[in-house]
Amino acid sequence: MNANTAVQGKGLRTVDIVYIGIFAALIAVCSWISIPAAVPFTLQTFGVFMAVLTLGGKRGTLSVLVYLLLGIIGLPVFAGFTGGPGIVLGSTGGYIIGFFFSAVVIWIMEAVLPSEGWAKIAAMLCGLLVCYALGTAWFMWVYSRANGTVGLMTVLGWCVFPFIIPDLVKIALAYVLSLRLRPVVMRG
To answer: How far does the chain reach from its first CA to its final CA, in angstroms?
Structure first.
């Protein structure tokens, strides 16, 4: 056994670390792309879905974690070229943290379900629901502390309902693109 094999058996290979970094950067770039609409939306969730589907659960989730840590320490990787703990502790911070839990859910479902298309789409839908739930609960808590009580349906109307169709499109696009990219990445 050579030294390279020993290192590979214990952790991440250099190529894994490179892919994790590339996909963390992809998520950042996706967060900076804002699509104008009645309620503007970014492509962050698309980046998260692409990372987990293309790299697999472990590497994809690590890329989301790297992205979050970069933003928390202040690099402008979040939407609107923002960063820092204030963004994560703000009213929409639950959705940002929800990206990590979304990736974890997809990773778990990837390990449990067959590797068929419907299972991957179901995993992304479940991950998205987790992100919505965490983000909405966090938004309600932060908003209520600053402005008084707000109803669940009001918050869903602000933070979830306008994003459902765009998020479904992002899921479909991530699924199709990952089918092409995953075989290439898995060879690395």
So the answer is: 20
